[in-house]
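Q: What would this complex look like in 3D?
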Amino acid sequence: MAASPTSSEIPRQITLPIGVAFEVVMQGIRIRFGRSVVTVTGVLFGIAFLMSIFTGIVLKNGLSSEEQLRIEVNRMLSFLIAETGQPKGHVMGLIVDGSLTPAEEKVFAELDAQGLDKLQVVAPATVVLPVLSSTQVQRVALDGVGTGASAILWTGEKEPAGGWTTAFKGSRQAVLALTRNVSAPQVAPDVHVVFLASALSDEQKAKEQAATKRENFRNGWIITISLLVTVIGISNAMLMSVTERFREIGTMKCLGALSAFVRRMFLIESALMGLVGGLLGCVVGFVFSVLVYMISYGFEPALHATLAGLGSLILFALASLVCSLVLSTLAALYPASVASEMVPATALRSSI
Amino acid sequence: MKTAEEYYDLFFESEGDPKRPCVIQAVDIKKIYRKSGQEVQALRGATLDVFKGEYLSIMGPSGSGKSTLFNAIGALVKPTSGKVYIDQVDIAQLDTNELAWLRCRKIGYIFQSYNLIQVMTCLENVMLPMSFAGIESEAAREKAIKILEMVGLSHRILHKPSSLSGGQQQRVAIARALANSPEIILADEPTANLDQHTGQEMIDLLNDLKCKLGVTIISATHDLKMLQKSDRILWIEDGRIVRTAKPSELDFSSKDFH
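A: Here is my prediction, written as structure tokens for the whole assembly.
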């Protein structure tokens, strides 16, 4: 009864298409819905936290730049008004060199709101003139500006062609208001110059940079911890899922499932939960953060900052989603290898 | 009581018959487990042949190595030493991929606790080994329905196993074991969790399969009715095969069976 071993008779088991594993996973998730929901919730919280921090950064930047703009405009206006008196009923000149900054546009809007009568603008034809509600805006030639004006706003960074004096031919009484940093303009001695623009000192700049750096570091730290907790949570849930299914996995192996199939099954399951948790987490984190900012900064500024930062918010949401997918797949690597290395005889153990 | 050597003659009787080749041969298999530093010898050199189309029952007290022998000849565990041949192929030479093919196509497993996949319907359970074998799902569905009809479950194919009785679940398990038309069916105490009547039905079903399809059945059991139906009974004790016998030669009323 000696056997004659010829080991080439057994063909290799085929590798199944990914769709089969996917179907099995979907059935599993449907049946163990409660457990899947708990796992997804874990992912959801982790990603919601990440997204709320991202949203917070975007909104805070938006709000603080708006706040800075407001302060800048108020300062410019109060300097101007201190020199020329209330703008109500006045005529002002505006010489545009290049395009207008948001701060400058706001200054005009404020002047308009305070009852400025007329704005004479000298600007290249390509520049769109500010649209004001009650002030009459006129495009004039350079030598026509300043007639009867209380101030001439200068938005250039260089001297005008022909020198400052030319620009003031019409009105020697007008104040020359410089809205940008122009160093030592060469003007006639009787022209009164007001510097409206402010420049941050190097010390202030360094301080601000240091504060930003500190905050970035702190945010990075918090995000890392929260993601770590999420990864461990998913890993734990998947390990539980493997333990719970010891017999099921053993049975599948007895029925001819390859280890790679079992591994893939768990990776797909985890990635799916990561995807769903990540999607929901992005929405929840975003909504939560926006609501908090609306409560503390008011509805409109927060909404404005959200809309202004929409582009970067979408990028951050995508990043969170990718992060969720990658992390949940990583978290499932160990549980999946535990499952795939299981011996099929596990299925035969009668005790559950 | 006859000695193992005397019963050994039975092997030679059958081996001379060219219509009954061996499907499984185990040659001096030993299995040593390590349990918390201690070596446990589950098998101390078991040798047996299983012939094509026979119904072999394995008996033995718990801890006798019965499960280990069962797992070893079913290609579920690798013996520490000795060889197991399935269809003349040494399974120690096979890689995981080829073993998976063997488990999928050649052998059908029936478990004491059914081991149906709870998340799938009966139909999906029966279709699963076919999808592992790469059978296209429409064809698999048709075949699965046919097999479920054969085991008398055509009316419950879309139920989940949890909603079925023990006997019905075991029928699904048998249907699943038959899915890829295996040559060998390994049944581990298939009637242990069933009542008398359902157990009898299960035995009839297995016997039917043997007669109609020529399937080789190996089962570990204590069930008298199963033993009576089998072609050969094999005793294992303390990791060794101590007796083999035909049911006709045995006195089922003796204390050995009670």
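A: To summarize the key features: Chain A has two domains: 18-66+203-348, 75-200. Strands of chain A lie at 91-95, 118-122, 136-139, 151-154, 175-178, 192-195.
Q: Very helpful, thank you.
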